[in-house]
Amino acid sequence: MEHIPQHIVLFPDGNRRWAKQKGIASLEGHMQGYKNLLEFAQWCKNRGVKVLTAFGFSTENWSRTKEEVNYLMQLLEKGLFDNLEKYNKDGVKVRVIGQKERLPESLQKAIKITEKATAKNSNFNLNLAISYGGKWDILQAVKKIIEEKIPADKVDEKLFENYLSTAGLPNPDLIIRAGGEMRLSNFVLWQSAYSELYFSSKLWPDFTEQDLGLALKEFDNRARRFGK
Fold it and tell me: Has this prediction a pTM greater than 0.85?
């Protein structure tokens, strides 16, 4: 394969629908989705992808039931602690983007510990978007620029990107969305200006390494012109 995306953004969508089809609790769907995300990250790493950003919990997801929100927060915390040793062994740098101040204190602590422990790893970058929204990201960048009183004539795209939560990362080359929906759902809106989009009808827990291969093959066949 000639072209491998440096940065993949993932929408692991369809966990609850998958659980409903199986006749099991929706929370079990999230657990299966979590397990598949760990596998997906390894598939990406094995294929030469350098950065993976996964949508874990959006700003809109706070409107879900308290039971589901609490479960997801606990699952995210468990995922960070349970995999910390493996992240360091495999050279994975973990970063969380989003409204961290809205998260439970125990999850905030887990994030700080994980980010600090993996900060010097350089083989692969895993970014987890938790309580994240694309509109929020743009607004918080604007507010920081205003607070720092940067003159308007000094603000360009390069400077602005340094104030986004994804500062320092390459913009995504490929966005993969499982679950059949065909929209960006308020995710990395600025960063995805020239990203290639790939939509799969597979519900996330059923998404396989073969499906990733199909997405990468499609990406390899596209001509990226960046508006030129």
Answer: yes
In 3D, which of 176, 180, 182, 174 has the Cα closest to residue 219? 174
pLDDT tens across 136-193, in order? 999 999 999 999 999 999 999 999 999 999 999 999 999 999 999 999 999 999 999 9
Annotated binding site for substrate: 14-18, 30, 58-60, 62, 64, 177, 183-185
Report the binding-site residues: 13-18, 30, 58-60, 62, 64, 177, 183-185, 196
Structural fold of domain 7-221? Undecaprenyl pyrophosphate synthetase (3.40.1180)
Distance CA(163)–CA(142), nearest Å, equals: 8
Question: Distance between CA atoms of 51 and 92, rounded to whole angstroms?
Answer: 10
Return d(Cα 111, Cα 115) in angstroms, integer. 6
Q: Which residues are catalytic?
A: 13, 61
- Binding-site residues for Mg(2+): 13, 196
Closest by Cα among 40, 13, 39, 11 to 203: 13
User: How is the beta sheet containing 92-97 ordered, strand by strand?
Assistant: 92-97, 124-132, 51-58, 7-11, 174-177, 196-199
